[in-house]
Design brief:
Elements (H helix, E strand, L loop, with lengths): L2 H17 L4 H9 L4 E3 L33 H12 L7 E5 L20 H10 L3 E4 L19 H25 L3 E5 L4 E2 L7 H14 L9 E6 L10 E2 L3 H11 L2 E5 L13 H4 L6 E5 L1 E3 L1 E5 L5 H12 L6 E5 L8 H20 L3 H9 L3 H11 L4 H11 L8 H11 L12
Parallel strand pairs: 1-2, 2-3, 4-6, 6-8, 8-9, 9-12
Antiparallel strand pairs: 5-7, 10-11
Helix pairs in contact: 1-13, 2-10, 3-10, 5-6, 9-10, 11-12
Bound molecules: L-rhamnitol and zinc ion.
């Protein structure tokens, strides 16, 4: 598509939107200021750089054996750079503790900022913010399914210390990059079969978390969030950190609540939780994911629920209180493309929401004219959003439409061919 056509289509689209009272220029301006946090773990199948052969476990499962998995931090950064180059706007990176750069074995309770300086320097150069996560999986001390809630106080101590170390690192990341680092705690703790005691692990989780969060750190540098889950492979009957648990915890401790789209009953959606939970917690972190039949972490597509999430954020002017992160891992397709597809979809859905005549919808609703409300919502779906999106990509100097896949193919030929194709996952 040539530039003149893209621009002409955009101008026509702008008029169409103006006719229903939507300011497209304003929408694009707002969109350009939203930073999505890209999850580092899509790039290497949640392996990280600790150099142990600990099984991923903990209910996390990556399937597929597409060639080109990043094996080193440099490869992962190269892949990320490439992905960012195909996504309009400036975005963040979400790093897990197991992605530190270690020259020798450093256990999780001993990691420090020095292991993440490479990432910080890289991010600084690109002026991108970085978020962080303690890693409570893929470790021998998590092998029996328990970490912060373990019955053995020594194991608990180890994981509390890991959490404390991670908060220090996150805070230093935030300081060095002058951008608040969200440090998200997710633990896998749970049971495959019916527990005899659902209470004690929850008591222990409160204690462990309170200790982990004890030190008060500058909220300009770090903000803590907690992520619940309904079930995982191997924790089908009981998850210690359930939604009710963390909702209560986040409210009473005024932490950020993380809502992962795949962590609820398959027909339960997080879009409807945004305006409820924000009545009581200061901010939200979203793990935008796509569950298929279960918490399968499929690449984010342009679904009704993705649009509903973005509508909730935009309609209620919550962009400053809701942080958008992605969380999926698919090794059956090109991993760089997986980032690009998911992030472009998140942004497209956001744009779709920004192009909505919200005032008009609200007015119809208030006046009891639900006919007009539904009519407007439905007509909105076939408005020329694509022309605005294409123009935005052009403006942001990234490929328009499917053209980006040619760049990915070339990158595959040049870069992936050098990489080990033996890294299979089944
Ligand atoms: C797992 C949680 C968690 C992880 C990452 C790797 O169910 O969603 O967010 O996916 O921390
Ligand atoms: Zn998640």
């Amino acid at each position: 598509m040539n530039t003149a056509n893209i621009t002409a289509a955009y101008e026509l689209a702008r008029e169409r939107y103006a006719a229903v009272g939507v300011d497209v220029v304003q929408a694009l301006e707002t969109l350009s200021r939203v930073a999505i946090s890209l999850h580092c773990w899509q790039g290497d199948d949640v392996v990280g750089f600790e150099g142990t052969d600990a099984e991923l476990g903990s209910g996390l499962a990556v399937t597929g054996n597409y060639p080109g998995r990043a094996r080193t931090a440099d490869e992962l950064r190269k892949d990320l750079d490439f992905a960012y180059g195909l996504i309009p706007g400036r975005h963040r990176l979400n790093l897990h503790a197991l992605y530190g750069e270690f020259s020798q074995r450093v256990d999780r309770d001993e990691i420090g900022i020095e292991h993440f300086q490479g990432w910080i320097d890289w991010a600084k150069e690109r002026q991108i913010g970085v978020d962080f996560n303690p890693s409570y999986f893929a470790h021998e001390k998590a092998a029996d399914g328990f970490t912060l809630t373990h019955a053995d106080p020594a194991v608990r101590r180890f994981w509390i210390d890991h959490g404390i170390a991670c908060r220090q690192i996150a805070s230093e990341i935030g300081r060095q990059l002058a951008s608040t680092c969200i440090n998200n705690v997710w633990i896998p703790d749970g049971m495959k079969d019916l527990p005899a005691d659902r209470l004690s692990p929850r008591n222990r989780l409160i204690e462990s978390l309170d200790e982990l969060f004890l030190q008060s750190l500058d909220p300009a540098y770090i903000k803590d969030s907690v992520e619940c889950k309904l079930f995982g492979i191997g924790s089908e009957s009981y998850v210690v950190g359930s939604h009710e648990f963390y909702l209560g915890y986040a409210i009473t401790r005024q932490k950020i609540l993380c809502l992962d789209a795949g962590h609820f009953h398959p027909t339960e959606v997080i879009s409807d939780k945004i305006t409820s939970t924000l009545q009581f917690v200061p901010e939200l972190l979203l793990h935008v994911s796509r569950g298929v039949r279960w918490d399968s972490d499929h690449v984010v597509t342009f679904t009704d629920e993705l649009q509903a999430i973005m509508q909730e954020i935009v309609r209620n002017q919550l962009l400053n209180r809701v942080h958008i992160g992605l969380d999926y891992f698919d090794a059956s397709i090109n991993r760089v493309a997986a980032w690009v597809i998911g992030t472009r979809n998140a942004l497209k859905s956001l744009l779709m929401a920004l192009l909505e005549p919200t005032e008009q919808l609200r007015r119809s609703e208030l006046e009891g004219d639900w006919t007009a409300r539904l009519a407007i919502m439905e007509e909105q779906k076939s408005m020329p959003m694509g022309a605005v999106w294409d123009y935005y990509c052009l403006q942001q100097d990234v490929p328009v439409g499917i053209a980006w896949i040619d760049d990915v193919r070339q990158y595959e030929r040049e870069e992936f061919s050098k990489r080990d194709t033996m890294s299979c996952h089944t």
